Amino acid sequence: MFAPNLVAKWLATAEKSMSHGKAEPFEVGEKEARDRQNWECVVSLRNTRVAAAIVLAAAWLSGPAVAAEPSYEDLLAQVKSGRLDIDYTALRLSFASSPLYDPYGGVLIKAKDMISAYGAGDCTAAIARAKEILEINFVQMDAHIVTGLCLKKAGDEDGARKERVV
């Protein structure tokens, strides 16, 4: 890669110029000139690789560029306003990371009452319990299913379809 005799010549020239106070011309042969050009290419390539590694490391450390996702409240407001073409996975995940998330809360008791009312054929009570559940946990699927089934029994196909979509 780099000729040792070239290094020796450079060192000798540097020594002479330092000891005599004057620089003597350093004659470079064709082989030494090629060695120097090769060395400069290697150094340049090495510098390029180091720069690329630094840029990649900085990009990796900064993390992925992620657009801010809408909050649970934003998505919920969209669904309640009638917009059904939202990302329901994002809605469910945002609920799970919101302060409203309580997997062991009072929804379980209300869900039992809702299912019992639906089983008894009392859709009015079942929908009432479902509405209570959905106020607490809008992503609770059983409440949407029972509401949709009851709305279909009542002949409200549009309401039932909306509950199926959600």
CATH topology of the largest domain: Serine Threonine Protein Phosphatase 5, Tetratricopeptide repeat
N/C terminus separation: 68 Å
- Which strand-content bin applies to the residues? under 5%
Number of domains as seen in the coordinates: 2
The CATH class of the largest domain is Mainly Alpha
Quickly count the helices. Answer: 8
- Annotation, overall tally of beta strands: 0
Helix content: over 70%
Category from helices, strands and their pairing: mainly alpha
H and E order = HHHHHHHH
Structure description:
The chain has eight helices and no strands. With 166 residues, the protein is mainly alpha-helical. It folds into two domains: 59 residues, no CATH class; 94 residues, Serine Threonine Protein Phosphatase 5, Tetratricopeptide repeat (Alpha Horseshoe). Helix 5 packs antiparallel against helix 6. The protein is rod-shaped, with a radius of gyration of 37 Å.
Task: Give a short synopsis of this structure.
The chain has 166 residues and is mainly alpha-helical. It has helices at residues 4-20, 30-62, 72-80, 88-96, 107-119, 123-136, 141-153, 157-165.
Secondary structure elements and pairings:
Blueprint: H1 4-20, H2 30-62, H3 72-80, H4 88-96, H5 107-119, H6 123-136, H7 141-153, H8 157-165
